[in-house]
Every structure is written in structure tokens, then in C-alpha cells.
Design brief:
The protein contains no helices and eleven strands. By secondary structure, the chain is mainly β. Strands 2, 4, 5, 6, 9, 10 and 11 form a seven-stranded mixed sheet that branches. It has a four-stranded antiparallel sheet with strand order 1-3-8-7, with no helix packed on it. The model has no long low-confidence stretch (mean pLDDT about 95).
């Protein structure tokens, strides 16, 4: 059974850092493009970042460029989102997602990702 489990969320002061992890099981991560999404209260889920199956290419939402970094460790079946310089507007539930693709879509939309974690809360507040 294919599973994705997020960890690493929490409360952080503005300007602080967090690293989210997404541990996967039940499939060969090497064959999948993976991504992070987030959903703030009252807002639609939005794409944050995506990384290709090989890790050779990444893309980011404009709102997080230069602050967030996506990475993956296929040997550990885990991928990550390093979040620096966090802002209050980064507060959201963060979801990891995977799809059997080599490359990320040009726009990080919910489609075509079929496999999702349950989410991890990130709160940027003093």
C-alpha cells in the first residue's frame, strides 16, 4: 500500500526555520516526481514546490522562491522541504504528494498528483 507521512511541522517565530520530511513506503520513490502543497484556513490548496524523479530539476511558487528548498533522498524513500525565513503568511497545513512522472508539471497544480499525505501544521507566529 502506497503511503506518505509528513513530519517536522510546528510553531516557529517569523524569520525562523523548519524542515518538513515526507517518508514514503509501498512504492519505488525513484520513479515518482514529488511535491509539497499547502492549505491555509479558508483558502484553496496551493502548490509550493516540486522535484523531478531524478532530483535534477525543481520548481517553486513565487511566494517561496529563495526561502524554501525541496530535496529528496531516494535511497531513504524520503523527501524534504527546508523552510527558511518563515513568515506569518506561510502558516498552513503542508501536504506532500507523489505521482509516477519523471518531470514536474510546469505549474504546480493538484493534478496530476494522486498520492497524498495527511498533512502537517506549520504555524509562523510570535
Amino acid at each position: 500500500q502506497l503511503q506518505l507521512v509528513e513530519s517536522g511541522g510546528g510553531l516557529v517565530q517569523p524569520g525562523g526555520s523548519l524542515r518538513l520530511s515526507c517518508a514514503t513506503s509501498g512504492f519505488t520513490l525513484d520513479d515518482y516526481a514529488v511535491a509539497w502543497f499547502r492549505q491555509a484556513p479558508g483558502k484553496e490548496r496551493e502548490g509550493v514546490s516540486c522535484i523531478s524523479s531524478s532530483g535534477s530539476s525543481t520548481n517553486y511558487a513565487d511566494s517561496v522562491k529563495g526561502r524554501f528548498t525541496i530535496s529528496r533522498d531516494n535511497a531513504e524513500s524520503t523527501f524534504y522541504l527546508q523552510m527558511n525565513s518563515l513568515k506569518p503568511e506561510d502558516t498552513a497545513v503542508y501536504y506532500c504528494a507523489a505521482e509516477k512522472l519523471s518531470d514536474c508539471p510546469r505549474s504546480i497544480g493538484i493534478q496530476p498528483f494522486d498520492y497524498w499525505g495527511r498533512g502537517s501544521q506549520v504555524t509562523g507566529s510570535s
